[in-house]
Amino acid sequence: MSVPEVTRERLVEVLEEIALLLEVGGENPFKIRAYRQGAEIVAGYDGDIVAMARDEQLEGIKGLGEALRDKLHELASTGELEFHKKLRGAYPDSFFHLFDIEGLGPKKVAALHKALGVDSIAALKTACEQDKVSALSGFGAKTQSKILVAIARREQSAGAFRLDDAILSAEDILESLREHPDVLRVEIAGSTRRSKEVVHDLDFIVATNKPAELTKFFATRPFAAEVIAQGDTKCSIRLASGLQCDLRAVSNEQYPFALMYFTGSKEHNVAIRSRALKVGWSLNEYGFTGDNPPEVHDEKDIYRALGLDDVPPELRENRGEIEAADEGTLPRLVEWENLRGTFHCHTTESDGKATLEQMADAALELGLQYLGISDHSKSSPQARGLNEERLAAQIEAIASWNNDHANSHFRLFAGSEVDILKDGSLDFDDELLAQLDFTVVSVHNALTLGEDEMTRRIIRAMENPHVTMLGHLTGRLLLRRDAYAVNHEKVIDAAAETRTVIELNCNPKRFDMDWRWWHRARDKGVLTSINPDAHSTPQLQFIRLGAGIARKGWLRREDVLNTKPLAEMKAWLELPKAKR
Q1: Least packed by Cβ within 10 Å: which of 328, 387, 405, 545?
Q2: Residue from 325, 318, 267 nearest 299 by CA
């Protein structure tokens, strides 16, 4: 029997889950800390830690005691850890879903489990509805109410999936379909192709001469956990994740029409069909009907026949794109390949999983020319935020790295994600901020302020001459936490006036600022920076998703700060804010 592949991420995941379960079980805090520290060491170690663990070569690494080294060896060499399996086996799988409820950490979950036997979200909801949770020490009526709200939000989002999860599934399915010899053309359609931040299903359009063969093939793939319906031209399945996938098999001639129809929003399609009727044709997912229908090979031909420029998939929402296509004023949208670097990245100095050096190496491998490091500030202790001394040391470390490695092709920029305090002041004074290459300011606490107070708070922070960009404007966590109240118009106007960049936080749990506001910001002259809010090296690749969201917001290359090449970016950051 082969050993499952073990990655660095898997080692970290197991150690962190052990720490979590030990905390739930009320274990010695020193033991819990040892596993959390071990996870941080494994995440940040500069070397092949998996191979070293497998070959029992971890001795001498500070912070990894003998017991931890033995467990890492067992996990790396066998793919499993008996101690972890035993801990996890004490709880049903449903128990771990409790940690998805906002506001529930290990201590609260432990208290609920011990006092009320809560081992699932359903059991938690029942306990709250029976008013049992409010009576527990450390909870109360307010906490119980918040838990019910969080559960309701989770129930409402059932069947909804983040864009990144949808794309990962879609890419695997597309690869499988492309290998079939009877597939002539295939593409993902629907809201995924339009780069919607949340999707409810996946749509695949296949051109083939053997549609029944394709629907049968689709229904029998390993990824099909459940077959919902199967016919000669259509097949619907459900993945293990619960995501529904619909395949439509059409002829090569019908393919452009089907792809266009199943890509556009309902509103976009209605407007396009209405336009077709005005020129004497009927248009549906199978083609044009009427006198002298045009010859069509791809989607561009359909738009061209209707007197329109080709509308990029991301814009097909009936939000002015048809009028712009008619007038020839559609923008040339930014491409992810236009991005030359990025900002708002975290390291192991705060709550990141990779060291400064590892983040730099990953950025170089991605082909970037610069990377902005911005670990949390001291008012975010939950994220191990840096105080003044630690930030000063990091500034020196980045300068040292640049001295040893930077050249005309790549460099690190020193920054900080500085907390905006409740009154709009910042977590660090201007003297320290002046030493940074850039500053991201973000709200991380007091999220329940009223709209006016929150808006004033953010605008006051943006007025600081050392603030480069505003981070995740609304604080939303897609499918988990609603945005806090803030007046987008006033913040956008203030950004234009103060020359503050508003980031497009392209971490797929955020996608914040929402794409619906970028057209207005662009027209006001506000720049964005497509930032991944990366807490690990793979998360740097979120900038690809960010480019899709930027395109959806009608953004051009010139609207995106981090399309600037290194020399221009360095010169721009060195300018006083008022002259940018």
Answers
A1: 328
A2: 325
Q: What are the CA-CA distances from residue 552 to residues 2, 303, 471, 502, 555 (Å)?
A: 45, 19, 19, 16, 7
pLDDT score recorded for residue 338: 98
Q: Are 580 and 499 in contact (CB under 8 A)?
A: yes
Residue 121 tokens read as 């979200």
| Secondary structure in 3-state letters for 227-296 | EEEECCCEEEEECCCCCEEEEEEECCCCHHHHHHHHHCCHHHHHHHHHHHHHCCEEEECCEEEECCCCCC
In CATH, the architecture of 162-327 is 2-Layer Sandwich (3.30)
Tokens of 210: 């053997």
- Angle between the 140-156 and 121-129 helix axes, to the nearest 10 degrees? 130
Reported as type and span, the H/E element at residue 417 is strand 411-419
Would strands 201-208 and 226-230 be described as parallel, antiparallel, or unpaired? unpaired
User: What residues contact residue 131 under an 8 Å CB cut-off, 6+ apart?
Assistant: 144
Sign of CA dihedral 154, 155, 157, 158: positive
- Sign of the dihedral defined by the CA atoms of residues 133, 137, 143, 147, in that order: negative
Pairwise CA distance, residues 574 & 580, whole Å: 9
**Domain definitions of the chain by residue range:** 8-90, 162-327, 336-579
pLDDT, average across residues 88-115: 89
Query: At residue 243, what is the residue type?
Result: L
Cα separation, 455 vs 451, in Å, equals 6
User: What's the CA gap between 338 and 427, in Å, rounded?
Assistant: 33
Contact call for residues 423 and 417 (beta carbons, < 8 A): no
- Among 566, 190, 519, 176, which residue's Cα sits nearest to residue 323? 519
Q: Whose structure tokens read 């029997």?
A: 1
**CA neighbor of 368 nearest in space, from 347, 345, 397:** 345
Pairing of strands 370-376, 341-345: parallel
Q: The domain 336-579 is classified under which CATH number: 3.30.70.1170, 3.30.565.10, 3.20.20.140, 3.20.20.70?
A: 3.20.20.140
Model confidence pLDDT, tens digit, residues 135-174: 998 899 999 998 998 888 888 777 899 999 999 999 999 9
| pLDDT single digits (tens) 356-407 | 999 999 999 999 999 999 999 999 998 999 999 999 999 999 999 999 998 9
| CATH tag, 8-90 | 1.10.150.110
Do 8-90 and 336-579 have matching folds? no
Tell me the pairing of strands 161-162 and 198-199: antiparallel
- Single-letter amino acid code for the residue at 99: F
Structure tokens of 412? Answer: 């690190």
**φ/ψ of residue 226, rounded to 5:** -150, 135
The phi, psi pair for 236, rounded to 5°, reads -120, 130
CA 442 to chain centre: 17
Separation between Cα atoms, residue 120 and residue 91, nearest integer Å: 10
Of residues 346, 406, 352, the one with CA closest to residue 372: 346
Are the CB atoms for 476 and 444 separated by under 8 Å? no
Q: Tell which residue, 342, 370, 382, has the closest CA to residue 505.
A: 342
Q: What is the rounded distance in angstroms from the CA atom of residue 414 to the CA atom of residue 128?
A: 46
The angle subtended at Cα 490 by Cα 486 and Cα 492, nearest 5°, is: 100
Strand-strand pairing, 244-250 and 201-208 = parallel
**Torsion angle, alpha carbons of 417, 421, 425, 427, to 10:** -50
